[in-house]
Amino acid sequence: MACRDISSVFTCWSILILIMLQTFSSEGAVKSIGSDSTVTTINHSSMLIHRLQELLQNGNSSDVTVKVHNVNSHEVKVFSSHYLVLTLQSPVFEQLLNNQTVLSLQEPTECAAVFEKFIRYLYCGEITITVDQAIPLHKLATKYQVSNLQQGVAEYMTHHLATESSQGHVVSWYNYAIKTGNEELQESCRQFLAWNLSAVINSEEWTSVSDNLMTALLQRSDLVIQSEVELFMAVEEWITRRQSDLPIMETVLKSIRYAMITPKDLFQIQKQSQVLSKYYSTVHDLLFIAFQFHSSSPLEFAKYFDVNCSMFIPRNYLSSSWGYQWIINNPTRDDRSISFQTHLGPSSHDSHKKVTWNALFSPRWLPVSLRSVYSDSSIGAIQSVKPEDSKPRLVISPAMTSSDFAGVNFQKTILVGVKQQGKLSVKHVYNFHQSTDEMNDFLVHADLQKRTSEYLIDNSLHLHIIIKPIYQPLIKAKK
What we know:
With 479 residues, the chain is of the alpha+beta class. The chain is built from 19 helices and 14 strands.
């Protein structure tokens, strides 16, 4: 008889009350509240959860049988369950169990494989999850309207994009987020892929990138990649392995920033790339403009072309000509400084011109508003400054006068590498305004004093400074 009958409802409640009484009679945590020792909290929740798990495992006084059929095989999993628990947790189960004591469910293989975890969650509100189980568990939570689990799995996916997996999972999670309309997860996936693209293109999941995701990624200027050549080679592999429509292929190839590739590499690509040969008519105008960009002075080129369109804006390139990788050991110890050089601009006309940069890192910079305490001779005033009032500081400035690079703006980007679930990845990206040498909120929430800080890898701070030269539109291009 189903638990909707009065007698069965009474039985169900009796079982739960008995469990609670047994639990509360056991030894548990007793905690005083405030200064009043007569007011305490007795916490036996862990024991209650244990009892409920036993209820599912042993099938004691069960009144519902749930049969889970794998739609792709003859496998059937049977669970002796309880009407009260299922209907309290899921409105869908409440509807399905109307006038029924045996419930037959049809689930795909991946969902059937984790159904025991799912139903156990309904009893104890706790679940262990791995990367490959995230989508099927989210599907079950969505199907049976278990909102807390649905939200919890979505949050797990957002925070475990960097986790190692044999086949890769970020692309599949993005595709799933598109289907479910989870915009927050979509953006988290796009951002992770953009900031870690060099790693992604060397993984098995690269060729599984959808047409829409590929076109969305290639529009971004914040792609972290070794060079535009590396990106072109990766796109060429993606095109070779997929059978996309011609408009998609054309859009993808047009999104490559050929002007960011040196003439030597451009010539090699034209000569050797079968994909470019096949679709040459699509991009030959872009290649011609790229060669013109490299052969003339930026000032002359700007008379005829808009130098501020995406084609002439660098991405976040990791090669040494665009910046400097800076690993700071024991970053809380003292101030550090380095000097490095980058090209004046992406045009080959400026390739022989270098800009020297000075970078200063200070682990305990004091904001201006608090510096006045140092002018006070009293020791008490100096001691009033707390360590938490200070913050890390990074200053990047040219070691040359502005006249040496007139007509060029420099965007400074700082990549902060972290170690997540055993995998190195870029999680934080800071962009300096082109007119400033310092970012006010750089690592403002980082606690570098803690060895467990997410910003430290083996007690070192991993930074990559990228200088992106952007030509100023000093002269309006002719129409």
